[in-house]
């Protein structure tokens, strides 16, 4: 065990498990980061909202403060006593002193009712005097009496009072703010005076101080001239921001000012050109967000460190049992060699190899069982079982059960299956045939299994379905209907054509062999009754007796040959069709006799083609003699042979007819007539005939054979034999007398020629004729 080498792993399971745990750990970590980002965003939004709310409060209070000043200016401007002093009197007469006192009292009341102003006065341009809420005095004296004379000279002050003002807030050098409004209001003429209201700076400062979040923050009021009207602190607005930069009605900016990052929020007054500005250090503004950030980062850091440790611990703990399994496989088993990614891959490969071995063994056992099952069923069908073999127990071991003892056999012979496969695809015929048999087995077993039990088995290049009744009833008509349904369905869906043979119903397992033999015999009659259909044994049991007569006699054969040689396609087709039709209708025609007929037909075609001089025509044939013979011999049924022979006749007769039509038919008839007239002349020959027609003997001989289908010598001999038969039959002449009469030099020459063409001697023919004639007379 100590010498075993550990299998090499690219990535150990510990590394994989640790990586998986860390990935799982990343989920809450990333979730926490996402939550922090969303929380920071929410806190920032809430801080901005609170800051905006505070600025809105500043705006409302400041605008109320401004509206109060506007209200006082309106009350002063529209006081009923004031216009008399502005418009009539350059110098106040004694008669108007009382009204002046009343006006000052009104001013005093206005000032007392508002805490927004410290004091106010009206400067009358025409008299160069001032009326305030405390005193009436000339302008120079009034200037000396008040504090603003320290920061503003008389000339400057006088010049400002003689200017036109439309309600302006002006910040003075002493830091205080005044409101100046020309009188009368809303007049197109030059002003008669100016109202000056000294804003209560302490009250304004108090309002701004009340809106400060913290001592580190400041609130400013900035006018359009970039002047600081007021601030919550003592310092004016000195940041690198101009009034023109604050374009929105309300906004928040982050700026770098004097090396310090600040948050600048502002809002615009609804009544003046003032901007209310709040300035906070950025770290103070984001103090809560920073707290949440630090808390989140700390928690995530603790979670990450603790998670890494726990991932390492549990990965090591969970991998230990897997490593024990790996060691077990390495020490006790036969581990596969090579490299593996991790322990699981090592286990999977070893387990997969083990399962493959198990499946291979199981597959082999199944194949062996299937082969043994097929072999045993084939032996049952053929009756090749030992007498002491327990058949039913053996069948049960192969999972074959027959509930009753009534059996029949459906035998299947596959005729054609090439329509199932594409012609342009080449494949192994053995594999294709196996696939076709598999299709037939599944479909037939399923159809038979609806009412009966059907077991398919391959026997001698055929498929046999052993049918057993489930209930004891086995109807042959029902079985034929099932077979025909399978025949139709398989032909339509799979383009597979087969011939079926059904046996009779037999009792007990011992009768299975007899049923199979009946099905085989029935299948053999496909030669006679045709293929690609379903046959029953009852329909073929009349065949096989002694036939009444052999249909293909010498005379029929000779007639058939003559029609071919003469190119008469219609007559040749009729002879062939009549012959095959009579053979199929002969109820006692056996399979062996049918095969003899087919061999004779092939021989006739071979002899006929050999006799025909078709050297030129054969070059146009799509097959040679070997192909022709092979094609005819491969005919498995009489129907197939009839079709192939009709196809061959069509070509041969068409060719002969074309050759005959290429010569002078009249000359052929004249030659035949000359022979029929002079056949009794012993000197009659091709040379004498050619001399008579003034033609070359070789050319005439070839011409005659092309036109008639037979040689001229053959025609002469056949004519003489025909006339000789008549002489022997009707005139009763001897052989020598007959030979002399029909043109033969001697009787020996007649005998040789007669036997060559008729197969028997003239004497034998004469004897047969007399025997038949006497037999007919007796009857």
TrEMBL record:
First-listed, main subcellular location of the protein, grouped into a coarse class: membrane
GO molecular function: DNA-binding transcription factor activity; sequence-specific DNA binding
Domain of life from the UniProt record: Bacteria
Membrane-spanning ranges: 12-37, 295-315
Membrane topology (UniProt): Multi-pass membrane protein
Pfam families per UniProt: dCache_1, GGDEF_2, HTH_18
Domain HTH araC/xylS-type, first and last residues per copy: 669-768
Transcription regulation recorded as keyword: yes
Subcellular location(s) per record: Cell membrane
A GO-annotated cellular component: plasma membrane
Keywords of the record: Cell membrane, Coiled coil, DNA-binding, Membrane, Transcription, Transcription regulation, Transmembrane, Transmembrane helix
Coiled coil: 348-375
Name listed for the protein in its UniProt record: Helix-turn-helix domain-containing protein
Organism: Paenibacillus sabuli
């Amino acid at each position: 065990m100590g010498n075993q080498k550990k299998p090499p792993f690219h990535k150990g399971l510990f590394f994989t498990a640790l990586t998986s745990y860390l990935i799982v750990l990343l989920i809450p970590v990333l979730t926490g980061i996402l939550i922090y980002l969303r929380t920071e965003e929410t806190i920032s939004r809430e801080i901005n909202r609170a800051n905006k709310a505070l600025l809105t409060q500043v705006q409302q209070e400041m605008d109320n403060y401004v509206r109060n000043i506007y209200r006082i200016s309106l009350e002063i401007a529209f006081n009923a006593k004031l216009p008399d002093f502005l418009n009539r009197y350059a110098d106040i007469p004694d008669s108007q002193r009382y009204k002046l006192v009343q006006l000052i009292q009104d001013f005093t009341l206005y000032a007392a009712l508002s805490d927004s102003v410290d004091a106010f006065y009206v400067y009358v341009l025409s008299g160069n005097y001032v009326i305030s809420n405390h005193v009436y005095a000339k302008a120079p004296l009034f200037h000396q009496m008040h504090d603003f004379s320290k920061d503003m000279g008389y000339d400057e002050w006088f010049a400002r009072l003689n200017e036109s003002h439309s309600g302006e807030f002006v910040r003075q050098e002493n830091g205080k703010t005044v409101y100046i409004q020309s009188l009368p209001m809303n007049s197109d003429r030059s002003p008669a005076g100016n109202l000056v209201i000294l804003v209560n700076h302490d009250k304004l400062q108090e309002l701004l101080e009340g809106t400060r979040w913290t001592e580190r923050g400041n609130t400013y009021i900035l006018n359009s001239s970039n002047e600081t009207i007021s601030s919550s602190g003592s310092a004016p607005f000195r940041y690198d921001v101009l009034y023109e930069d604050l374009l929105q009605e309300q906004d928040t900016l982050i700026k770098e000012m004097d090396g310090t990052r600040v948050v600048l929020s502002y809002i615009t007054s609804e009544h003046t050109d003032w901007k209310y500005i709040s300035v906070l250090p950025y770290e103070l503004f984001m103090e809560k967000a920073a707290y949440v950030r630090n808390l989140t980062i700390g928690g995530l850091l603790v979670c990450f460190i603790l998670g890494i440790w726990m991932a390492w611990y549990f990965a090591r703990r969970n991998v230990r049992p897997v490593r024990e399994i790996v060691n077990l496989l390495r020490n006790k088993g036969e581990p596969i060699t090579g490299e593996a990614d991790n322990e699981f891959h090592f286990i999977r490969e070893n387990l997969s190899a083990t399962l493959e071995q198990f499946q291979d063994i199981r597959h082999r056992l199944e194949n062996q069982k299937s082969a043994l099952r097929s072999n045993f069923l084939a032996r049952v069908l053929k009756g090749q079982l030992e007498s002491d073999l327990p058949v039913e127990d053996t069948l049960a071991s192969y999972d074959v059960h027959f509930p009753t003892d009534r059996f029949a056999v459906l035998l299947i012979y596959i005729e054609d299956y090439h329509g199932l496969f594409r012609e342009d695809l080449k494949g192994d015929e053995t594999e294709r045939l196996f696939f076709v048999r598999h299709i037939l087995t599944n479909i037939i077993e399923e159809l038979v299994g609806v009412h009966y039990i059907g077991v398919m088995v391959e026997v001698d290049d055929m498929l046999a379905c052993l049918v057993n009744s489930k209930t004891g009833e086995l109807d042959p008509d029902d079985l034929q209907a099932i077979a025909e349904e399978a025949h139709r369905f398989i032909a339509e869906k799979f383009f597979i054509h087969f011939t079926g043979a059904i046996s009779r119903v037999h009792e007990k397992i011992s009768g299975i062999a007899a049923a199979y033999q009946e099905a085989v015999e029935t299948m053999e009659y496909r030669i006679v009754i045709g293929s690609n259909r379903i046959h029953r044994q009852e329909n073929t049991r009349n065949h096989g007796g002694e036939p009444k007569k052999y249909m293909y006699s010498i005379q029929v054969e000779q007639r058939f040959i003559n029609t071919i040689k003469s190119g008469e396609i219609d007559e040749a087709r009729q002879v062939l069709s009549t012959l095959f039709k009579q053979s199929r209708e002969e109820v006692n025609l056996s399979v062996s006799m049918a095969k003899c007929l087919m061999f004779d037909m092939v021989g006739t075609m071979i002899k006929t083609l050999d006799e025909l001089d078709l050297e030129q025509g054969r070059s146009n044939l799509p097959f040679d003699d070997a192909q022709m013979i092979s094609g005819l011999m491969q005919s498995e049924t009489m129907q197939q042979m009839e079709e192939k022979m009709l196809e061959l006749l069509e070509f041969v007769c068409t060719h002969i007819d074309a050759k005959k039509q290429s010569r002078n038919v009249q000359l052929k008839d004249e030659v035949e007539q000359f022979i029929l007239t002079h056949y009794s002349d012993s000197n009659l020959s091709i040379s004498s005939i050619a001399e008579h027609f003034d033609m070359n003997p070789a050319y005439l001989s070839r011409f005659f054979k092309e036109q008639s289908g037979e040689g001229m010598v053959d025609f002469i001999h056949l004519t003489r034999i025909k006339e000789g038969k008549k002489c022997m039959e009707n005139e009763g002449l001897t052989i020598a007398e007959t030979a002399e009469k029909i043109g033969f030099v001697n009787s020996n020459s007649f005998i040789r020629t007669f036997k060559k063409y008729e197969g028997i001697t003239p004497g034998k023919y004469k004897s047969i004729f007399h025997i038949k004639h006497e037999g007919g007379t007796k009857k």
